[in-house]
Amino acid sequence: MAEYTPLMLDEDVDTKRIEKRSRPRLVFCGLSITMLTVLLSLAIHIDVLFGPPVHQQTLLGAKNVETHFENVTPSPNLLQGHEIMRKNRFKFPQMVFPALFIRVSAEEPNKFYRPSSSVVLSQTDSMIYRWKTKSNWPTCYLTGWVSPRAELSAGNKSYSARGDMTAIQVWLVEATRSPNLDLSKSGVSWNTKPHRISLLGTLNFTSHADQEGRSYLDGQELKPPTPRFPCLGQTEITVELAFGDDCVGCRLQFEQVFSMPPLGFELMQLA
Ligand SMILES: *[C@@H]1O[C@H](CO)[C@@H](O)[C@H](O)[C@H]1NC(C)=O
Ligand SMILES: *[C@@H]1O[C@H](CO)[C@@H](O)[C@H](O)[C@H]1NC(C)=O
Fold it and tell me: Where would you find the membrane-spanning parts of this chain (predicted)?
């Protein structure tokens, strides 16, 4: 049974300051599930890398099958190791909630949008997202995190999606180079949105549990098209999320709220 640590605030942020600020920089901290996921996917990835090539595994004798079963038995030490890490106040990789996100719409190119919880992606709407992180890990990536439907509805969350959600584009934008650009104060319109610099990768906004069940996606965090970037220390990144031109009629809409269960676009530190 997966174990959840309740939502926690970033240890480095003064709690009093958070109460005063309207849009605090918060993080999902120490999500054990995240840690387990990352560790498991790494373990499987390493197994894939160093195990025998797939074509050699097709004809297995009973003994080999047994050996392979041993390989996939979850390590009984995993939870214990996890506990030791916790006791020693080891820094867990964190899931970081965005510092802000703002919709822009080509249909109303001069309308200025301000940060809100509403996420809308369509062929004419894209989203500017910004994350700030103080990371002990050298690499971070962006991900679409969709909790199972039952959990979402228990948490009063839902999303509506039409078309292909498996390749939402993540563009690095100019504001990343000038982090002082205060998007939250001025708001952003389609005509003033920061210029795209390069395509960082794409996101698969489908059920996270479904993705974990597919062996060909094991270790996907470590390779393209996952949008990855170096993030050791203090990092701020601003991106534009958009559908590709070939995603005809695609539309995604939901409210991204800082509460469990996670639903939305998140930054993950990679252990
Ligand atoms: C979910 O939303 C409904 C109606 O908006 C409300 O009555 C209910 O209390 C909410 N439940 C939770 C767990 O927030
Ligand atoms: C996206 O995730 C789904 C499972 O939710 C999987 O079937 C699909 O192959 C994934 N696509 C990509 C491009 O990663």
Answer: 26-46
